[in-house]
Amino acid sequence: MTAIAHRYEFVYLFDITNGNPNGDPDAGNLPRLDPETNRGLVTDVCLKRKVRNFVSLDKEGAAGYAIYMQEKEILNNQHRKAYDAIDVKPEDKKLPRDKDKAREITAWMCANFFDIRSFGAVMTTGVNAGQVRGPIQMAFATSIDPVVPLEISITRMAVTTEKEAEAQSGDNRTMGRKHIIPYGLYRAHGFISAKLAERTGFSNEDLDLFWRALINMFEHDRSAARGEMAARKLIVFEHESAMGNAPAHVLFDAVKVQPARGDEAAAPRAYADYEVSIDRAAIPAGVTVRELI
Amino acid sequence: MGYGVRLKLSGERACFTRPEMKVERVSYDVITPSAARGILSAIHWKPAIAWRIDRIHVLNPIRFESIRRNEVGGKISPASVAKAIKAKSTAGLANYVDEDRQQRAATILRDVAYVIEAHFDLTAQAGADDSVGKHLDIFNRRARKGQCFQMPCMGVREFPADFSLLEEGAPLPGAHDSLRGERDLGWMLHDIDFERNMTPRFFRAQMVDGVIDVPPWHSEEVRA
After folding, report:
1. pLDDT tens digits, residue range A169-195?
2. In this complex, do A247 and B90 lie within 8 Å of one another by their Cβ atoms?
3. Taking CB atoms and an 8 Å cutoff, what residues of chain B touch A122?
4. Sequence-separated (6 or more) residues with CB below 8 Å from residue A198
5. How many CB atoms neighbour CB B84 within 10 A?
6. For residues A148 and A45, is the Cβ–Cβ distance under 8 A?
């Protein structure tokens, strides 16, 4: 597979209605908040997880599209079994000293695993060559406006243990909590380096798959906690040269998300309350803008 | 330093992890010379040159924020990869996130901006056609146009670093008032010595009116 030849940046807008896009383990699973601005946050790793899940659904383990970071399965015992592998000494925690061998291992992992090829992975400690830096880099997604997390109390018409039932003398009800935000439009920024793609073999087909994942991943990530999530806009900047033709922040600044009715005070509750515009005059020469959604 | 460069960096968040607190990451107060070198190398680097950081200008107030994330603890072992290559199958070669989950907090910096003053030395690997001028030109051209080998980051890749070249003679942006005066930032990582089995080397960082003078790599002040 030939690697991509252009540098890319992208602006990705997604929204959530009555759900929790990314719980904060530090705050009892409340939606993540930027404490200074009260804007919602979604971490980069949260979005990457969904990309991985989409690719593994879409490709169903097709050759070259395995996913290294799997969710919800049993831990492979391959790691332990591996110690009887012939070529590598088990106590050697670093990559094999033999550089060719190390390169072979890394290349094979890149060729077979989509997530290693695109996001990179750390293989073993110590030696730098054991780390794969992937071409795709994503930053935290932030909501356009401050969001207000609501705590919704819910009841369950059953209890878990006999003891609980006795304590309630047969009433058998428990209360639970759900954290939602009524509405939030989130904006994420991403970077794709052509030069790192060269090193991992991240190809144009991989790139198309990645765009498809961003467009469709929420459709396959429905759950009680998430509410309604949807990808709203994916604006891709393609640089003519591999090194890039413009600073990333200049491109990002050209994409503006504003209240549609100029009514800043009203609480936005739908995507229609926002207006997304691209200032095409501000895009330097050598950069092509594409709106994939 | 006639061949110096000045690069202005800014970012919403940053995490220059202290090595003594790297499990639940805690950032240094300011960018380390090592991270600054990484940012310069993300824009231009060849084996023929070695970046040296001379000075760090801190422009914004130092503020922290905490964030906790689910991470995985394990790494891929080369032995299992070798085995899979032999078996010609990726079956079983995966890291199952649920089984290997760790929740880690990170104390990170908010709204950072720096100016990095640096120069580079030619290394032993420099060939006949490597001249200081050539590499300096390439770097300046790229930094001016926003070109980079990969998007530079503020310590970790999820925090991208916006950069722009500070042209020669252009005035330095001033530091925030809260940075006035002298501040001892304690022992800070200078860089990792890759020639000596990756030994970290430290220096005593003193910030005077937002400016940190970084001692030369091989000076007395830098200790392993």
Report:
1. 777 788 889 999 999 999 999 999 999
2. no
3. 75-76
4. A3
5. 22
6. no
